[in-house]
Amino acid sequence: MKLNEDFNFNIKKRRPEEEYENVSDYFRGDVLTQYANSKSIMRIQEKITLRALELIDIKKKDALILDAGCGPGFAAMYLKEIGHSVVALDIILEFLNVYEIKDLNPINADMCFPPFKPSTFDAIISISALQWIFRDINNRIMHLMLENLSKSFFKILKPKGRVIIQFYPKNKDLMKRIGKIIADTTDFKGNFIIDNPNRQKKRKIFLLLSKES
Ligand SMILES: C[S@@+](CC[C@H](N)C(=O)[O-])C[C@H]1O[C@@H](n2cnc3c(N)ncnc32)[C@H](O)[C@@H]1O
User: Measured in angstroms, how far is the CA atom of residue 70 from the centroid of ligand 1?
Assistant: First the structure.
């Protein structure tokens, strides 16, 4: 996995994924409602989705796309609007019930164990979720979960399918390790794309993966 070596970062501030072991202990009650109803979060997530789509460059007009870790469905709704078919998957059931998203085929499941047949999707998109899955380099379970996620994504993608993952790793070592685990466990070809690498507030990190055959 290629990584631009000209920048470095290590975020000091503790973030929710370090404070809470389970994502469902953080996104609940008021925190979940505020996230799902915030117009500014909606705008930010849509902007990230647009950039993710630019990077993944899906040629097919009516692709079948998995939104992994969809939350209330901001990316999934946008994908549907532009003509794709979507399956919106999240581990927190309450997120899937905020909006009327039946036509996004909502599925309550863990994205490390996506319940789909091989070669189902043209593309997979995941916005702001992976930092919950792999956040500690020394945690064996997290390694196994990421391995499972990458093997599963590889399996459920059609040949020539692509994955775009935007996420918030805490530091460059974590990022590198994620790239290594994916490269060691699958035949994905891929690279990181980092927008505004040296501006912490504006930095956006994407991982683009392709299943070549
Ligand atoms: C910051 S929210 C982002 C939600 C949405 N993608 C967006 O852009 O608004 C992170 C989401 O990742 C989901 N998530 C975290 N770990 C997950 C897992 N193992 N399987 C499925 N979803 C997961 C959470 O439930 C939450 O909805």
Answer: 6
Kindly report, residue by residue over 7-47, the tens digit of the pLDDT: 787 888 889 999 999 999 999 999 999 999 999 999 999 99
**Which mutation among 132, 144, 165 tests ligand 1's pocket best, with the greatest number of atoms within 8 A of CB?**
132
SS (H, E, C) the chain: CECCCCCCCECCCCCHHHHCCCHHHHCCHHHHHHHHHCHHHHHHHHHHHHHHHHHHCCCCCCCEEEEECCCCCHHHHHHHHCCCEEEEEECCHHHHCCCCCHHHCCEECCCCCCCCCCCCEEEEEEECCHHHCCCCCCCHHHHHHHHHHHHHHHHHEEEEEEEEEEECCCEHHHHHHHHHHHHHHCCCEEEEEEECCCCCCCCEEEEEEECCC
Atom from ligand 1 closest to the CA of residue 49: 8
CB-ligand 1 contact for 46 (6 Å cutoff): no
If you classify domain 38-210 with CATH, what class do you get? alpha beta
Atom of ligand 1 nearest to the CA of 41: 9
pLDDT tens figures, 142-182: 999 999 999 999 999 999 999 999 999 999 999 999 999 99
Q: What is the pLDDT of residue 138?
A: 95
Q: What is the reported pTM?
A: 0.96
Would you list the domain boundaries of the chain? Answer: 38-210
